[in-house]
Specification:
This protein is of the alpha/beta class. The chain is built from 6 helices and 10 strands; from the N terminus they run E-E-E-H-E-E-H-E-H-H-H-E-H-E-E-E. The protein has one domain: Rossmann fold. A 6-stranded mixed sheet has the order 6-7-8-3-9-10, with helices on both faces. Strands 2-1-4-5 form a 4-stranded antiparallel sheet, with helices on one face. Helix 6 links the parallel strand 7 and strand 8.
């Protein structure tokens, strides 16, 4: 990773959840160099939501993974949750993600050997919560996502929509500053997609989180504060 300034450099504007400056990412495919992000700039204000759209393979997920500390940068800087993260080492990035980021993916990634409630409790306890506090928070979130009657069900006993609701609750359990969602309704039918999308944006607003969501679904753009198109490595502006 690049390390052009001090590791603990803080983001200049505390009304900003994420600020990206001149971010570039390339991949080598045989003799060809593919530029998926070309000196990209981006700002997410605290408490706001941005939807990123674009064709498959355009770099949407790559961008999301980079601002969430899951992928390294070639050049540029990323400020998130009050600090610069592109220069952090692996251990500090892990700690950063645990404290500040809630991820929701297309696949739910729930632990199959744990009930829906236990998936949340375990996540909270890994973060350092006592079991009683973790259970209390988990029950509150399961109520928020409408799964109080399914807390003892294992993931295999839940529908696709229910699993994604549990995944949303898990993303919120550690009270992160930022929620990053990568095609969270990509495996759902239209009816369940609308339920999950409305639920996610409602909870983001309720708990005053900042959200970046990448998707192909144009309906979601109606729910966000801003929608951007990623095309040929750069953002093409609002929709």
């Amino acid at each position: 990773m690049m390390n052009n300034t001090k590791e603990n450099e803080l983001i200049p504007d505390y009304s900003t959840a994420i600020e990206v400056r001149n971010l570039t990412k390339t991949y080598i495919n045989g003799s060809e160099i593919l530029t998926v992000l070309n000196s990209v700039n981006f700002t997410l204000k605290r408490g706001s939501s941005v939807v990123i759209m674009g064709k498959s393979g355009c770099g949407k997920s790559t961008f999301l993974h980079m601002v969430g500390g899951l992928d390294s940068v070639d050049s540029g800087t990323i400020f998130a949750a009050g600090r610069r993260i592109d220069s952090l080492n692996s251990d500090k990035l892990t700690q950063f993600r645990k404290n500040h980021i809630g991820f929701i993916f297309q696949m739910h990634y729930l632990l199959e050997d744990f009930t829906a409630l236990e998936n949340l409790i375990v996540t909270s306890m890994i973060h350092g919560s006592q079991k009683r506090d973790a259970k209390e928070s988990a029950l509150s979130l399961m109520k928020d996502v409408g799964l109080l009657n399914k807390i003892n069900n294992y993931p295999g006993q839940l529908s696709g929509g229910e699993r994604q609701r549990a995944a949303i609750a898990r993303a919120l359990i550690n009270d992160p500053d930022i929620i990053l969602a990568d095609e969270p309704t990509g495996n759902l039918d239209e009816e369940n997609s609308r339920i999950i999308e409305d639920l996610l944006f409602g909870l983001v607003k309720k708990y005053q989180k900042s959200l970046i969501l990448v998707t192909h679904d144009s309906y979601i753009s109606k729910l966000a504060n801003e929608t951007l198109i990623l095309q040929k490595g750069v953002f093409k502006g609002q929709v």
